Amino acid sequence: MSYSELLVTSLEMAADKMDDITEQVYALYFKASPESRDLMGHMDMLMCGRMLNEVITLIIMPDNDLEVTLKFEVKTHAANGVDLNMYLLLFNALHSVIRTTVGDGWNPEFELAWKERVDYLCGVINTP
């Protein structure tokens, strides 16, 4: 199974166990990045959920479509004070919630797929 398939499978397994992970992801994210809470203080959970859907789209998006989309997102969010490290913290919060939600079904292949994807995304984000 490709790492893209592993990512999708892990997300589907989490979705089977929990309808909405938004609050859990943002609770972890804001704990790791209080400055993000300040930047996003005007947003409700509905808007946070929409943003999380965009993050999940980046997680599963094919690499050939990713760079332009991700660079656009980074540029757009930079105007609002978003620091590049905040992306890693959000990706890590999502990964943690998915891993916890999947529970006993989580395996080393999922872990490696998530690590590779987050590393790749952060590499794209940090490339000028």
Give a quick precis of the structure.
The protein is an all-alpha fold and 128 residues long.
Question: From the coordinates shown, what is the CATH architecture?
Answer: Orthogonal Bundle
CATH superfamily: Globins
Distance between the termini: 32 Å
Using the CA coordinates, give the radius of gyration: 14 Å
Put simply, the count of helices is: 7
Describe this structure as you would to a colleague:
The protein has 128 residues and is mainly alpha-helical. It has a single domain (3-125), classed as Globin-like. 79% of the residues lie in helices and 0% in strands. The protein has 7 helices and no strands.
What labels describe this entry?
128 residues, mainly alpha, Globin-like, 7 helices, globular
Helices and strands, with pairings:
Elements: H1 3-17, H2 22-32, H3 34-39, H4 45-60, H5 63-78, H6 84-102, H7 108-125
Helix pairs in contact: 1-6, 1-7, 2-4, 2-6, 6-7
